[in-house]
Amino acid sequence: MIEFISLDGVMQAPGGPEEDPSGDFKYGGWTAPYFDDFAGQAMAEQMKEPFELLLGRKTFEIFAGFWPEHESEWPGVNKAIKHVVSASLKNSDWENTVFINDHVVEELKKLKAEDGPDLKVWGSGKLVQTLMENDLVDEFWLKIFPVTLGQGKKLFAEGTIPAAFTLEDSKISPKGVIFANYKRAGEVKTGSVG
Asked: Exposure pattern of 154-169 as b/e (b: 16+ CB <10 Å)?
């Protein structure tokens, strides 16, 4: 799961003002001031093939409106299979798009169990809650930006379950963005300090 989040956990509309203004969110595009060559290189590394995408409807619509004409910026994105969870969308002109319209959790479990390339989730706030609630997240690739937004859709919201993770890799950009990759490490352990 690849997510951009603020220090207070907001994931809504990182890419631009029109991306998701729902709930009267007025900070769309909050990641833009922090992107530099370092961030671009780190992102390019995470966008490498082979991969398949798992997206919610809203993120898919944003991607489908941009990436088919800009594959040079993300090699392989058009060839990759795009699995889209949506109650309303059933087809798309974007090649290699497959829709999951019914029995979503069961279909996601089957998809996760298949052999194949990495299944990458970008954005997709509502879908992310379903994945977390059903213990279907193996890794978080977080980009934590040095800004608090005070409002907006949060990554760790109603779908979050207790789970332990280990830090697999981390980097900090010159502008203070923390790139942290966490891998699932079983159940939460407790104890006493001291």
From this structure: bbeeebeeeeebeeee
Asked if residue 161 lies in contact with residue 19, where contact means CB atoms within 8 angstroms, the answer is: no
Peptide bond into 68 cis (omega under 30): no
Residue 81 contacts residue 91 (beta carbons within 8 Å): no
Q: Tokens 């007025």 appear where?
A: 26
Dist. CA 64–CA 78, nearest whole Å: 10
Instruction: Classify burial at 115, counting beta carbons within 10 Å of its beta carbon; exposed 0-12, middle 13-18, buried 19 or more.
Output: exposed
Q: What is the pLDDT of residues 119-177, one digit of tens each?
A: 999 989 899 999 999 999 999 999 999 999 999 999 999 889 999 999 999 999 999 99
